Amino acid sequence: MIIIKNKNLEFIIIIIIVIYIACYYVASSGYYEYHLQEKTILTNEKIKEFESDIKNNQNIDIKDYLTYEEVDYTNKLTNFMYNISDKGHKLTRKCLKALFKKLSYLVED
What we know:
The protein has helices spanning 7-29, 31-55, 76-108. By secondary structure, it is mainly alpha-helical. It has two domains: 1-70; 72-109. The longest helix has 33 residues, at 76-108. It is flat and about 75 Å long. The protein starts with 6 loop residues before the first helix and ends with a helix.
């Protein structure tokens, strides 16, 4: 057995193994395929409904046949990371502008 002296490294390795086992379980249990199959069934039902509406000469609106679920994945961590990214972008832009301004002085002279 491998002996790891650093406890933080050991903890990270255990977390990675647990995440791998969880992903493997989700993949092997067929949860993802089942979810996709449910979407396919719903789509096939909407296609049949669309075809019957065409046969019956009813008004057709695309919104009646599409089911769009907008999921909001934002949380405190994603908002925090977005703010850090935005500040980093602004800082990088400011530094590049200053760099090119100084380079333009060198080129002009």
